[in-house]
Amino acid sequence: MDVIAVRKQPPAHSSAEKNLRFLVVDDQPTARKMLRQVVSGDPSWSVIGEAANGEEAIALMDRKPDVVLIDIVMPVMDGIETTSRIKRLGPETIVILTTAHQNNEFQVRSMQAGADGFVLKDDLTTEVLREILNDIRPGCQPRPMNIGNDVSLNHE
Q: How confident is the model over 33-53, as a mean pLDDT?
């Protein structure tokens, strides 16, 4: 499983404290449907908006999502630039990038942009998302990562 979770600052909330509101961002309608299904697997989570590109996602940030699930490769504005802008607008917003591409550069650029997590779409399930959200808390730092290997966290 290719999952990375990192939190550089303490979150304003944890996934266990309240119902989470998600924004789903992907240019492919079938991928957005899959992401909605993953979110709907937890009754305390809800999708409050969908976007087909980064510009649409930025326009929906006034809905104050707790978590944004973003595809990396999209037209208009890619997921990495979108992540950077979302983090400037709301640093407390949890951003998890999703991709179908096994590419180390994507992982590195995602984390540099401020992403809190990165996961391959093929690996994303409700349980995996819950695990990522539970790991996004103070004291977690990523270990060096290789796509194709499990990634665990150092808890300092």
A: 95
d(CA 141, CA 82): 22
| Helix then strand then coil, % of the chain, to nearest 5 | 35, 25, 40
**pLDDT tens-digit profile of 51-95?**
999 999 999 999 999 999 999 889 999 989 999 999 999 999 999
- Token pair listed for 94: 């949890």
**The pLDDT of residue 48 is above 50:** yes
Interaxial angle between packed helices 79-89 and 104-112, expressed in degrees from 0 to 180 and rounded to the nearest 10: 20
| CATH number belonging to domain 3-155 | 3.40.50.2300
Q: Which two tokens stand for residue 33?
A: 């449907």
Question: Which among 150, 147, 12, 25 has a CA at the least distance from the CA of 80?
Answer: 25
d(CA 59, CA 4): 27
42 Cβ contact list (under 8 Å, min separation 6): 20, 126, 129, 130
Q: Given CA atoms 140, 146, 147, 148 in this order, what sign does their dihedral have? A: negative
| Cβ neighbours for 131, distance < 8 A, ≥ 6 positions apart | 3, 5
